[in-house]
Automatic annotation (TrEMBL):
Superkingdom of the organism of origin: Eukaryota
InterPro entries: P-loop_NTPase
Gene from which the chain derives: Smc5
Keyword Coiled coil: yes
Location(s), subcellular: Chromosome; Nucleus
Coiled coil: 193-315, 357-419, 666-707
Descriptive protein name: Structural maintenance of chromosomes protein 5
Keywords: ATP-binding, Chromosome, Coiled coil, Nucleotide-binding, Nucleus
Principal place of residence: nucleus
Family: Belongs to the SMC family. SMC5 subfamily.
Cellular component terms (Gene Ontology): nucleus; Smc5-Smc6 complex
GO terms, biological process: double-strand break repair via homologous recombination
Lineage: Eukaryota, Metazoa, Chordata, Craniata, Vertebrata
The species this protein was found in: Pterocles burchelli
Gene Ontology molecular function, alphabetical: ATP binding; single-stranded DNA binding
Matches recorded under PANTHER family: STRUCTURAL MAINTENANCE OF CHROMOSOMES PROTEIN 5
Length: 761
């Protein structure tokens, strides 16, 4: 049924459901053969090669078994040609015996019908005796030793019986020696009789099972004989049935022939009537088409006459429109003449009142001189504005550079805060609370030291971090003991934070025990305090607690001569390039003891901010803001002056324009009056005779109305003709409809009769 199939059983009951031939038994066979079972266990074939799909040379069964600690996978490859099998466990070749051992260890018994019951073995399972069922059940569901114990128990019972007989013999022998041989003989007879009785009982059980098989066999034989007799009788019964059917069919055929003949005789008159109706319908249809053509021709002539009448109406409307345009043109001409007369009178009045042209040159020169001074002053202001604007742009560029640099420094601070948040969440939460509640404290509170300490050189961060404890790195620094207690007792009591208090007397300026110059011969280059910057109270705490002002930092040179350094300097703590040394003197032996540890990689101070640079940048930014404010004020004053000068410039230019216009006005008026007189004469010459134009229009309209009357008369005759033709056409259509209805009825009857005739045929 299929080439390959993979089955994944689940817990509890698994059912494989399908129609016959879909391959359910193939899965059962695969389970048996894959677990070392023999073909005889299944009862379908005697060779494993016969279980491979037809046409294939090889078949494979792979079964995965649950086992602690690891599952095992058993694979069996079956060759059809030589009927052999190859076995594999977890992909490695093995033998059948090894596979059987693995299967037996899991108590899998494919040869036990109580554990594995193929379809073809159900009958054999039903024939098992009670003793065999008990033994199979013990093997199937009991522990491995149960069946063994049962066998031993039966053996012990046999031995017990023998011992009882022997004891009986011994007892009798002690009383009567002559009867001993007879008792032994009776004992052997008794054992033989018992064995024969057991065999007889088993044979009787077997005979009872065989009786059922014999009865089923005889019953099957009777059924087969009955089937053979019925098979011999079947052809005669079939023949008699078919002969009767033929007789019935012949009678129905004769009746159908008579019915067909009657139908054909009834069909002939209907056909003749349909043909006559068809001829009449075609004749009427031809007459209707002719009338329709005549009506169409008359309708076209009516349309032409109507179009001609509309054209005449349009011509009359055009004549009226032309007359109205003439009237409008004459009225417009009269209005223009009146307006022209009024304009000439106004200009003459203005000309008569205008005095002789006085000398305006001195006043014009004064205005020109003032305009020249104004332009020079505006040029100076524009130059000042340009210079100030350029300076402002330079300052803004410098301001942007400072803001960018401060942003970079703030980014470093943000990185340090993120590092604090990632490593010490509670400390970061407390820091956020502190920034929002600084006003609650009497004195300044400093943030965790890892944020306050800024390395001058990030390469030296490892010395400071290895010297200061991690708990102090994340500790807040207070200047007041009261503030520190209030901070620790605030609402955030569940947070794990550290806090320290700076000493009342400042230690930030404490001097080292000796100057660094005295230690440079040993490779020391600085004390820890000089490697970083911190607020004064933080530095005071570090000097007091960790003595950062007196712990020198050395180089590889210091490491190379470390024994000499310890002996000569008597220092208590020193740093080389990669190590930290702590020196102690024993109070009992007065011996010098030193311990060295490798420096840890820095985690908190590698991203430091130069506070001096940041403070300098902020001061520069404030200075630039002040300069920009001053420049804005100066530019505002200059813009106000520029606006005032522009206003004064516009006023002087307006005065100059008015002076020039006063000198040219008289000449302009005289020229305009002359031109208007010429225009007036032309308008008076272009007069229109409206009475004459009206008479000509009436004559044209009268001629057109006469033509319209002739067209209306012709149109009336055509309409009457069209109406009479339509009446005739309607009469023909009614006749055609009647004939068509009759024809359709005949055709419907003919069609029904034709269907009946076809069915009869």
């Amino acid at each position: 049924t299929y080439d390959a199939c993979e089955v994944h059983p689940g817990p509890h009951l698994n059912m494989i459901v399908g129609a016959n031939g879909t391959g359910k038994s193939s899965i059962v066979c695969a389970i048996c053969l894959g677990l070392g079972g023999k073909p005889s266990f299944i009862g379908r074939a005697d060779k494993v090669g016969l279980f491979v799909k037809q046409g294939c040379l090889k078949g494979v069964v792979e079964i995965e078994l649950s086992k602690t600690p690891d599952n095992i996978i058993i694979t069996r490859e079956i060759q059809v040609v030589n009927n052999t099998s190859a076995w594999f466990i977890n992909g490695k070749p093995t033998t059948l015996k090894a596979v059987e051992e693995q299967i037996a260890a899991l108590n899998i018994q494919v040869d036990n019908l109580c554990q594995f019951l193929p379809q073809d073995k159900v009958g054999e399972f039903a024939k098992l005796s009670k003793i065999e069922l008990l033994e199979a059940t013990e093997k199937s569901i009991g522990p491995p030793e149960m069946y063994q114990f049962h066998c031993e128990l039966k053996n012990f019972r046999e031995k017990e019986r023998e011992l009882e007989v022997n004891m009986y013999i011994i007892e009798r022998a002690s009383s009567d020696c002559r009867e001993t041989s007879m008792i032994k003989i009776n004992m052997r007879s008794y054992n033989l009789c018992r064995d024969k009785t057991n065999s007889l009982e088993k044979m009787r059980q077997r005979v009872e099972r065989y009786k059922q098989d014999v009865e089923r066999y005889h019953e099957c034989k009777r059924h087969l004989d009955l089937i053979e007799m019925l098979e011999r009788k079947r052809p005669w019964v079939e023949y008699e049935n078919v002969r009767q059917q033929i007789e019935e069919v012949k009678q129905r055929r004769d009746r159908a022939k008579e019915e067909l003949k009657n139908l054909k005789e009834m069909q002939s008159p209907v056909t003749k009537k349909i043909q006559e109706a068809e001829v009449c319908f075609k004749s009427l249809d031809m007459k209707i088409r002719d009338k329709a053509a005549e009506i169409k021709e008359v309708s076209q002539k009516c349309k032409q006459k109507q179009d001609a009448l509309e054209m005449k109406d349009k011509q009359i409307e055009e004549i009226h429109q032309a007359l109205r345009m003439k009237k409008d043109e004459e009225m417009d001409r009269q209005s223009k003449i009146h307006d022209t007369h009024k304009m000439i009178e106004d200009w003459k009045l203005e000309l008569s009142t205008m005095a002789a042209c006085e000398d305006l040159q001195p006043e014009t020169n004064a205005v020109n001189n003032e305009l020249k001074k104004l332009q020079e002053e505006r040029a100076n202001i524009d130059s000042d504005i340009s210079d100030l604007t350029a300076e402002k742009m330079n300052q803004e560029r410098e301001k942007k550079r400072l803001i960018d640099r401060l942003g970079q420094l703030n980014n470093i601070i943000n990185m340090k805060e993120e590092n604090l948040k990632r490593r010490f969440q509670d400390t970061h939460t407390a820091l956020m609370w502190l920034r929002k509640n600084k006003d609650k404290f009497k004195k300044k509170v400093f943030e965790p030291m890892m944020l306050e300490i800024n390395m001058k050189d990030n390469r030296h961060a490892k010395y400071v971090e290895n010297h200061i404890s991690t708990s102090d790195m994340r500790a807040f620094v207070f200047e007041s003991q009261e503030d520190m207690e209030m901070f620790l007792m605030r609402d955030h009591q569940k947070l794990r934070v550290n806090a320290v208090c700076a000493p009342a007397e400042s230690c930030a300026e404490s001097l080292p025990s000796r100057p660094i110059e005295a230690l440079q011969q040993y490779g020391f280059f600085s004390y820890l305090r000089e490697l970083f910057d911190a607020p004064h109270p933080v530095m005071s705490y570090l000097c007091s607690q960790y003595r950062v002002h007196d712990v020198p930092v050395g180089t590889e040179k210091t490491r190379d001569m470390i024994e000499r350094v310890i002996e000569e300097t008597k220092l208590r703590q020193i740093y080389t390039s990669e190590e930290k040394y702590i020196i102690k003197v024993s109070a009992y032996t007065n011996l010098t003891l030193s311990t060295n540890t490798a420096l840890r990689v820095p985690q908190f101070l590698t991203s430091s901010v130069d506070t001096d640079e940041r403070r300098q940048l902020e001061n520069q930014q404030q200075d630039i803001n002040n300069v920009l404010k001053s420049l804005d004020m100066r530019l505002t004053v200059l813009f106000e002056k520029q606006k005032h000068l522009e206003s004064r410039d516009n006023l002087l230019r307006q005065q100059k324009k008015e002076l020039l216009e006063r000198g040219n006005r008289r000449r302009q008026l005289e020229s305009k009056i002359s031109l208007k007189h010429d225009s007036l004469r032309q308008l008076e010459q272009d007069a229109i005779d409206l009475e004459k134009e009206s008479q000509q229009a009436n004559v044209k309209i009268k001629e057109i109305n006469i033509q319209k009357a002739g067209l209306v008369t012709e149109l009336m005759h055509l309409i009457k003709n069209c109406v009479s033709q339509n009446i005739l056409k309607a009469d023909l259509v009614l006749q055609s409809t009647t004939v068509a209805a009759e024809k359709n009825k005949l055709e419907s009857d003919y069609k029904a009769a034709s269907v009946q005739l076809a069915a009869a045929e």
